[in-house]
Amino acid sequence: MTLKLAIVGRPNVGKSRLFNRLAGRTAAIVHDTPGVTRDRQAVEAVYEGIALTLIDTAGFEEGVSGSIPNRMTRQTLTAIAEAEALLFLIDARAGVTAGDEIIAEALRKSGKPVILAANKCEGRVEPPAEAWGLGLGEALAISAEHNLGMEDIVAALETLGPAAKPEEEQEQEDSDEEFSEDDELEEDVVVNYLDRPLRLALVGRPNVGKSSLFNNLLGEDRSLTGPEAGLTRDAITAPWKAGERDVLLHDTAGLRKKARVAGETLEEMSVASTLEAIRFADCVIVMIDACAPFEKQDLTIADLIAREGRAIVFAINKWDLLENKAGAISRMREKLDRLLPQVAGAPLIATSARTGEGLDRLEAAIAEADTAWNTRISTATLNRFLGEALQRHATPAISGRRVRIRYMTQRKARPPSFTLFGNQLDALPEAYLRYLSNGLREAFNLKGTPLRFSVRNSKNPYATKK
Predict the structure, then answer these.
(1) Range of the domain at 367
(2) Model pTM?
């Protein structure tokens, strides 16, 4: 059991910094600009032996109905309703404001236990005396940035939350661990799944519908959406279930061209958060605008994901807005395979986050890509494939000597990575490796995942020793 704790307060009082402190990692973007956090974000954490589900929230402020501040406040109210306890943060330097009083009234009405803390109490700053007037007891003096007063937070949490249970099981070995060609597999093709959720990230250019799809898949308004580009800043994580598969779904900030982001500190931090989500993911859904498909930035994003070695699914979103649908998917498929041969055959699904069209097919494509990403193939099966491939298309000759591939093994999965053994393999053309990649994808259904190759040359027994 964990204590679900929501951190609430006005903009720029230090909620995200305290959230990161309790989480033990940089889970939320922190910046001096007010209103950086826009979505509620939840992470599991253990702080000083207390098991917590932490919820970071946007600033609580009034706004015109439908405005960004108004939508942010609705997200915060949802977090208050979901939480079991509330940590109300005020700014000790600014004192108690009218906004603090409005929030305090909402928290009192919730009927849930509230911990009142005055942040930014470093130096000689003390909690404002008027904090008593909020009707929430004494304000704890803390500094999230300087790690001051956190023992008081712990003491308050101990009265509310259960202690974390000690870990009894050792961590399972990562299936990325390499294995030798001598390892025996009981079956020709084996698919390994770890006993943990699939980590799935939604990535793409700004305003392609990532947050709308995120909300549609979850069945709730979990992320802020709207016509404004760049609403999402943090990578937001939420549990989801795709069929029988548990999934950790990540909504991310849009990736713009590097030149447009340079010098914009806040946007650079958002991009860094997205890149971290990609590195954390097992599979990535690359969202493409159906009305402007496969622009240069789309290709750059997909290439980045392939180089990171993640399974890829392409979601052609806003399909309902496309006027000429006849043959569109076939044209996009041809363009994808031509421009991104490193992920040739990756699933390409027409979707509409607004109407829900294609989401069932998207779930099936995710499962297919996940299966391919986890596949291991026995050495014997691989070498039967290699023999047939060499018969169909022999290796080229370099300086009068033919490149010779003796055999191949799969050294790891996630993504499937292979080692070729033979002579002069350093001179093997990229085109031949692409030929082998395409053959492996077709023979073992490895579509939607990048493949990696390494080579080992046999020692020449006649070489003169220096």
Answers:
(1) 196-373
(2) 0.74
